[in-house]
Each structure stands twice: as C-alpha cells, then as structure tokens.
User: What shape does this take?
Amino acid sequence: MLPHEHTVVMKFGGSSLADTDKIRKVARLVAARHVAGENIVVVVSAQGKTTDGLMKMAHEVSPNPSKRELDMLLTVGERSSMALLSMAIADLGHQAISLTGSQCGIITNDNHFNARIIDVKPVRILDELDKGHIVIVAGFQGMSYKKEITTLGRGGSDTTAVALAAALDARWCEIYSDVDGVYTADPRIVDPFHLVELSYDEMMEMAYRGAKVLNFHAVEFARRRQITVYARATDGGRETMVRRPALELGRAVLAVAGADRLVGLVTTDLAQTAELLAKLSAHHAEIQYLLSRPDGSGVLVLNPVTAPDWRAAVPGHDRVEPLFSVSVIGRSIGFENAMFNEALRLAADCAAEVFCVEANPSHLTFYCRGETGAALTAAFHRAFVTPR
Ligand code: ADP
Ligand code: ASP
Ligand code: MG
Assistant: This one.
C-alpha cells in the first residue's frame, strides 16, 4: 500500500450512476486514478431515484413504516451500486472489492433513518488498500452500536465519504455530482455564478438553508476534522474547494439558498410546548426556532436538516403546515436595513405570502406560505449576488 498521503476518497452521487453506461464511465475514471498511483476509496450512492422509489414502495405497504425496516430497505440501493461498480472496474482489469458501511467499521448511534456517525474503524479498508485493491463503499449507511443497520439521512453518502477521508487520513475528499461545484444559487432555478472556494462555515450555512449540493452533516464533519472537500461534476468542468479560510474577509453576500425546500411550521398552545418538545426529542428532531405570541400561542419552525421527518414528528397535532424558505447568505449581512427593505419589496413584487423573517449576521431568511420559492430566489439573486 502507498503511504496514506496518497489516499483519496471519491464519492459519486445517484445521477452519476443512474444507468450502466454511467457506471462504466465512473469505473474508467476511478481506474485512471488508480493507474496514476493513488490509493482509491470510492463511495457510491444509490442509482438515480432508487431511494425515492424504495421510500414510495415502503409507504405503499404501510403508511407509517418502522424506521428500522426502512433502513434495511434503503441500504439496498447503495449495495446494488457498489457491486455493479466493482464488477465494472474488474472488467477493466483492476482488482476491486465492494464493502457495506458496517463492513467498513462505520459505527453510528441508534437513531434510525437519520443516524450520526460516532466512530469509524476502517481496518477492512486498510487491508484491501494494502493489497493494492480499489475499495468501493456503500454510502449512506452504518451499523449502530446495537449491531443494527442504520442510514445517515437523505444525502448521507457525502457524510460517509468525509468520515472515511478523516478515518483514513486521506489527502482530501472529492464529491462528484451532476454540477461542477457550488454556485451562488441552484443552477436549476437561476443562472448563478460559480464559487471557486468556500469556508466550512459558509458552506454549512448554505447547506443548512437548502443548497443540497453538499450535505450539511458532511460539511460539519469536514470542518471538525479539517478535511478539504472538492465538489466536482463527473463530466468534468470546474470545481469548488471547501476548506478552512486563508483569511477572514469583510461583509459580502455569497449566495441564495432554499427555493423549493420545505420547512415545517407548527402552531401550538404555549402551555403545551413542553409536551411538544418532548415528542420532537423522541424523534431526534430539533427545532430551528420558537416564537411566542402575546395571545398564548407559539409557533415552531422545523428545518429538514435537523428534523428530516418533521411531519411524522408531530403526529396528531392540528396545526402543522409547510412553508418554503429562501435565504440570502453571506458575512455580516443580516442586519442591514437597506437590504432588508429591498428584500421586503422584492417579496411583495413576487406576491410571496411572508410568514416571518429571520435576520442574522450570516443570513437573511424569508419564510413564506406556499410550495415554491423559485421566483423569490431569482429576485434575491438578481438584486444581491455579484460575482466574487
Ligand atoms: P448527488 O445525487 O450527486 O448527491 P445532489 O442532487 O444531492 O447530487 O446535489 C446536486 C444538485 O444540487 C444539483 O443538481 C443542483 O440542482 C443542486 N443545488 C442546489 N443548490 C446548489 C448550489 N448552490 N450550487 C450547486 N448546486 C446546487
Ligand atoms: N441514496 C441516499 C439518498 O438518496 C443517500 C445519498 O444519495 O447520498 O438520499
Ligand atoms: Mg447529494
């Protein structure tokens, strides 16, 4: 095995593996890197929309499937990808082996469907790298300390990749998807600017507010362990580097995030808040914020990053509704009156039904009634974001 500074973790998302031609293309990319003299660990997601399909089937057989069984079901998607990629690489004359999350020593807590990694013991991966093999790992999954199979939340293969990069002391982690890096907004919604480099904090804020190009927990992990992450497209093009910033810069608007991502709004009697919070804790769902009103009522906002199944977390509660959120993200921006005024005017122009606004140094977030914030995203991007 080459020294660990020659180890690189490459993660390929569902769109990069959507059909067998794409799998063979990824196999060629990986093989070329192996030939170039690197120890290669590849993390794969389920193909295309496989995970959505499995979720749909689960809800067809039961409206409220057990999270343990959901985890058993969903991990199938990544297992299928890893075996197919391993076969495709072997066909190119390289030795590859596929391993599940539990075989790779990814130990999690027991929070099924949204588990957190608590330890990684990559003994098996090191053995295989030692033999000169390419190692293919099923992303998005681990094994709890109770020896149950768990999943890491939607988009969790990114977290597998960063966690393995940390455990293997790799040079960096490369995350490949259908977009060549991180942009100032979702390229599916506006025509944004490319971002060459981001700090961990900037990327975490974007991911928390809905920029799903990198998973929030993965970036959080990368920051904690100081792993440099490259976001790239499987088809080539540019890249974005996420790492510790070289220097602290002044005020700047960075990006717009959110668009069609829904957050949960729960209206409650304040006297029942303790009971509601206990219910949410039982689902490992954290609130984003709580607003208390003079009439004795309160509203709670639930973010899908910290409360992914917010609808299920408050069963039987009479006032749960979706809101969309659109955030302007940057440094030292949230308290600027001129920007705030302009944002309110733009929201009125878009006929957005604003429920409330959250202002912070790092973001200005509009929560609105309705299902999509595409128009507001475009308006905010046009008004506030400039190339950096
Ligand atoms: P994968 O399935 O490979 O994990 P994802 O679908 O999770 O890929 O992430 C890539 C998608 O993220 C892109 O197709 C893009 O629409 C979306 N996206 C949202 N916000 C941004 C942004 N600010 N920059 C780049 N892509 C973004
Ligand atoms: N397949 C899982 C999902 O669709 C995990 C991932 O793609 O990262 O959420
Ligand atoms: Mg993803």
